[in-house]
Amino acid sequence: MEAIVKTGFNLPGQVGKYVGKVRDVYDIDGDYLVMVVTDRISAFDVVLPEGIPYKGQVLNLIAAKFLDATSDILPNWKVAVPDPAVTVGLKCEPFKVEMVIRGYLAGHAWREYKAGKRTLCGVPLPDGMVENQKLPEPIITPTTKAAEGHDEDISKEEIIASGLVPREEYEQLEEYTRAIFQRGTEIAARQGLILVDTKYEFGRRDGRIFLMDEVHTPDSSRYFYAEGYEERLARGERQRQLSKEFVREWLMANGFQGREGQQVPPMTPEVVAGITDRYIELFEHITGDPFRKEEYSAERIEANVSACLKELQSRA
Q1: Distances (CA, A) of 77 to 31, 67, 186, 213
Q2: Residue of 224, 98, 85 whose CA lies nearest to 159
Q3: Residue 183, φ and ψ in degrees, nearest 5
Q4: What is the structure's pLDDT at 244?
Q5: pLDDT at residue 315, rounded to an integer
Q6: SS3 breakdown of the chain: % helix, strand, coil, rounded to 5?
Q7: CB distance 243 to 194 below 8 Å
């Protein structure tokens, strides 16, 4: 199995390329973006030294499925999926905030709560809650979008006062966020899962708001198994979950949390294969579809994407 860790395509109309932690994004005539979801994997803001075969395909196909499943709520950037790890979409002007929505007190929200905070991003939280407990209703806890390092919590009032997003648009983002999360919650329930929390990115194009980037993937979302949730909660036990958390847990168990001086533990072929298997398990549980492995071929990807772009450009 070969992992996609680097791309160097020469695509029709290409005017730029951006390399993120896990994505290579090609700008096509300033109008379209080609997003290659590579097999790079990051944790604690560090790109790990080994790629995970099929991870990019898993994330891209889950995102495509959920973009299609929410397209009646608002338009999204996706135009085509010419290859399993690639989405071609409309270039939008991104909003400078990420919309995080939480249905349960888990992860960052729990850590803040455990430290004594009872307000998160301006949203009050009730006393007496325990880790992983369902919130009275989903809460929106936006973050800034940091070019480097960690995103920072920010409140609705701070977003509007600072001019990051005008009030009317921000309130529309909140409305869309709640509607998409509700749809994702319903789809997850049909798969025996609980959508715990997630984040969405939005952009503007031609005066309209578009949903962008990955949606409801295990890298951007946290899922619990519904079966046994109440019993584990009552006993104070950890929940069985579907997310990238298992990678972070493996790193922490081996002495790595991204701090200065720490070394990433050896990623043996067995470790890499185990992570691949977990991502495929995530795909099949979240989508309900069997996963079909598509071996990596730079030539095939470039040919498929080029054909897609030429067809789009011929319509223009």
Answers
A1: 11, 9, 23, 8
A2: 98
A3: -65, -45
A4: 84
A5: 85
A6: 35, 25, 40
A7: no
**How many helices and strands, by DSSP H and E, does the chain display?**
8, 17
Q: DSSP of 193-236, one letter per residue?
A: EEEEEEEEEEEEETTEEEEES--S-TTTEEEEESTTHHHHHHHT
- Residue 148: what pLDDT? 59
Backbone phi and psi for residue 285, each to the nearest 5 degrees, phi listed first: -70, -40
Mean pLDDT by 10 residues, the chain (316 residues): 91 96 95 96 91 95 97 98 97 96 96 96 96 97 77 93 96 98 96 96 97 90 96 95 85 92 93 92 93 92 96 87
**Structure tokens that stand for 1 in this block:** 């199995």
The dihedral over CA atoms of 257, 261, 264, 266, expressed in degrees to the nearest 10, equals -140
Q: For residue 230, what are its two tokens?
A: 């109440």
In 3D space, the residue among 291, 250, 255 whose CA is nearest the CA of residue 53 turns out to be: 291
Cα-based angle 19, 241, 77 (whole degrees, multiple of 5): 40
User: What is the structure's pLDDT at 214?
Assistant: 86
d(CA 104, CA 232): 14
Task: Return all residues near 298 (Cβ < 8 A) that are at least 6 apart.
Answer: 7, 9
Helix (H, G, I), strand (E, B) or coil at 264: coil
> pLDDT at position 146, please?
66
Spell out the alpha helix ranges (H) of the chain.
55-69, 107-114, 156-162, 167-190, 229-235, 245-253, 269-287, 298-315
Separation between Cα atoms, residue 293 and residue 29, nearest integer Å: 32
| pLDDT value for 218 | 86
Q: Which residues pair with 241 in a beta bridge?
A: 224
pLDDT, tens digit, for every residue of 54-68? 999 999 999 999 999
